[in-house]
Amino acid sequence: MATDYYEALGVDRSASTEDIKKAYRKKARRLHPDVNQADDAEEQFKVLGQAYEVLSDPQKRQSYDTTGDPNGRPAGFGGAGAGGFGGFGDIFETFFGGGSAGPASRTRRGQDSLIRVRIDLRDAVFGVTKEVEVETAETCSVCNGSCMRPGTSPTTCPDCKGAGQTQRPMRSILGTVIQTQTCARCSGFGNIIEDPCQECDGQGRARERKTLKVKIPAGVDRGNRIHLAGEGEAGIAGGPAGDLFIEIDIRPHSVFTRRGNDLHATINVPMTSAALGTYVTLDTFDGEESLEVKPGTQSGEVLTLRGKGVAHLRGMGRGDLKVHLKVDTPTKLSDKQRELLKMLAEERGEKQGESSTEHKGMFAKLREAWESV
User: Which HAMAP family did the record assign (predicted)?
Assistant: First the structure.
């Protein structure tokens, strides 16, 4: 009975080419004769290869789906011409790797670094240049990133002869094939550093502290990051440096709080000043400002100073400074002050307990209803 190629690969008839390829690779690792100890291991692997040969080729798959004739596939693995070996690339890739153009490079890019810098709110408003101390990896000053003691040179690896890879014969259904793998002695570099630099332990870089001048633009906010390309850790063996990211934090201010690009402040105004009107001064980041409190000002009113807030980070101009007025009601009165307030209340026709709210509350209405009975 002819083998069902879909069943051999363990896929549905609607499987995509990618699904077929994944299924083949998965089963090939498990059924290879060097791994599979079954008596018919070579036959299982052969059928698997035949199934993949047919189903991975759109034309052959269509012929197989239409006629069910396995003759739509190449005649075994020994077929003549390049067409008989279409699936072997995957076999070699699965077991022997894709090969390499030569020895690996010791050079590696350095890691990116992240540090946090705390600034004052004023610095966020106008921008500032700060000196930032960073502990990082710098190119070794002794070997200049070569990883070797000055005056010495690496030696060619005797195992791989500088290729970075070694080869060994391996049995397969094809006969003896050559397996290529990374050289264990030189780790694939092709050479060996027998006299490494003592300053950096053969890494080509060493830990150091350095000071950077960082320009922090106006308008930055908490959590913003400044990207400094090439200021991160130096790479291994003279490799390029990574990047440095400066994350901004902002100290709380005793007077101003920030909401977006606007600044907010609260000023307490005595009750009499709010009633009669006055001027108050506020020390802003732009200097002292005089603010008019108009007669009859109520608690919660806001005075706005245009363009006195935080600069727009990606644009022109600045936000506003919003000053919230809080009218202070005295809590402790002398006898004389109490009498004066009573006189004022009488003069204004006010009675204690009366509400100035136009809409009376439920309890006030109940009291009026009870008094009218």
Answer: DnaJ
